[in-house]
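Still learning. Any example?
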Amino acid sequence: MSVLEKIQNLQKTFSMSPLCSLDKSLPIHPDIIQQLQSFRNETDILMEKCYHPLKIVLMGEVKAGKSTLLNVFAGEAVSPTNVTETTASIIEVKHSNQKKGSIIRKVNETIDGSTDEIYEILSANKGNQDFFSDVSEVKLGFPLANLQKLYLVDTPGIATVTASNEKTAKGYIQNSDVVLWVFNGHHLGQQDIEEELTNVKSYGKPIIAVINRLDEIDGSAEELEGYIEDQLGFMIDEVFAISAYQAFEGTLHGDQELLEESRFPALLSYLDTIEKEDKQVHLQSISSSINALVEKERLNHQIANDTITFLLQTMERRKEEIKYHNDSIQKKIKMELQSWVSTHLLEDEKRNLLRELEGLGMMSGKASYESISSQMNHYLSSEYILEMLERKFSEINTSFQQQWNQAVETIGEKINIEEEEFRKGQIQLYQDTDVPLEVYFPQGENAVADGAIKGAAIGGAYGVAAATYAAVLGPSAAGVTLGAAMGAVMPPVLLIGAVTGIAAKLVFGNKKKNEYRVEIIRAVDETKQKVSNVFLPAMLDQLENESNRIANNLYDQLCEFISQGWTAEELRDVQQKINAYNTSLVRFERVGVSF
C-alpha cells in the first residue's frame, strides 16, 4: 500500500468514529471532540503533502537565532533577523527563478511583490498588531541552489509575546517533514521547552536539535550536545551545537576557517544526506505522521471510553451512597421519635401532677383534687399535645435537614476524591505515550470553568466536584425540608376523643389519693399510646415519603448533570462502538506502506 492510499484509507476509517456522529454531546471534555476534528483536518494536510517537496521547519524559542540559521542555509539574508518575531508570521523560503514573495492574509487577500518589496511592507508594519493579526503566512522565493529541493520555514518563537504566535507556530508542525529545533545555548534545560518538544514529537516528526550561540558561551560543543542527549535524547534524532552567526559571517565573506569554527558544516552534511534521500525521508515522515495521528485518535477514543466507564461507576456509586444515607436518616429519626414518645412525651407533666398530688394532705378538699383534674385536662388536651408535637416536628425537621445536608456534603467530597483519583490514574496510564498529556488534561481557569460547568470534564478537567456541588448538590441541600404543615401529619380531631375521655374520668368520682396516682399514670400512658398509634405512623410515613423523594430527586439530578442527559444504557452502547472503532484503528496501524 502506498502512503497516499493509506491516507485515503485513514480518512475513510476516521469517518466511522462513533464520537463524531452523535446527535448530542457526550459527557466528555469538549477538547477531545475538537482534537478529533483537528485530526481530520490534518489528514487533508498529509494528503496535500504527498504532492509537495520536503519541508524543513525551524522552530524554537525567541532569540535563539532561527532567522540567522535560515539565512545560513539559504546562503544570503533571505529572512531579516528582526522580522519574524515582531510579525508573528510564518516565513516560508523556497527555490524560485526570481526573487519574489507574497504576504498571504486571512481575508483571502494576497500581496505579491519582489522580496525587497515584501520586506519593506513587513518592516513598515513592524509592531502593527492589527496588520499582522490578519497575516497567516509570508512566502519568499530565491534563485538559490541550496533551496532547489528543500523548503525552509521560519516560525515565530514559542515564548513570544502574544498567544497567537504560539498557535501559528504549532499549526505548521503537521505541514513539515523535519523539525530543526533551535535552542538558545544560554538557556538550556527549561521545563516549558521540554513540554513544547513533547508536543512536536506527538506529530511523529523527526526532530534535529540545534544548539545555537556556541560562540557566546564558555561550555564546549561536546558538553552542550551531551547535556541535550541526556535530557531529551528520547525525543531527539540528532544534536548539533553551532554558531549560526559565525556560519553566516563565514559564508558571506568566504571565511572557511570561521565557517569550520561555527561547526555548521557538520549540520549541513547531515542535512545533505536528507536532501539526497529527500523522497524517502519525505514519505517516511508522512508515514510516521500517519501512525502518530492514528495513535492520538485511538488515545482520544480510549480516554473518552475511560471517562464513560468512570461516569457509569460514579452513577452506580451515587445510587448506593444515596440509598445508604436515605436508609440511615430514616432509621435515626424513627429511633429518635420513638424514644421521644416513650421517654419524654408528657413525662415532665406527669411528674408535676404526681408531685402536686403527693403534696395533698388529709385536710385537702375537693377543690385541690379538681385543680389536679383541671391540670390533667390541660396537659391531655389536643391543643397542648399538638403544640408539643409541633415543637418536636420543628426539631425533627431541623435534624432531617442537617442529616441530609451532611449527606450531600459527603457525596460531594467523595465525587471530588474519585475524580482526582481517576485523573491521576489516567495520567499514570498514559504517561509512557508520546502524546502530550496536555492534550487530554488541559489546565487553567478557563478549562475549569468551561469544562466543569458543562459536566464534561470528569475525565480530565479540574473542578468538576465543585461544579457538581454548585449545580446540583448545593441546591438540593438548600431544598431539604419536611415542610411546615403539621396538620398534614397530625389532624387535631384524631386526639380529641381519646384525651378528653381520659381527663373526664378524673373530674368525677370520690377517689382516694393513691387511686388518683394510678389514674394519672394510666391516663398519661394511655395518651402516649394514642399518640404513638396515631402520630408516629403518620409522621414516619411522611418522613419516609419525603426522604425517598429527596433521595430520588438527588440521584436523578446528579445523573442528569454528570451524564448530560445520557442514560446508562446509551453510554454503554457508545462504549461498545468505541471499542469496535479502536479495534479497527489497531488493524489499520498494522498495515504497512511501500516507499
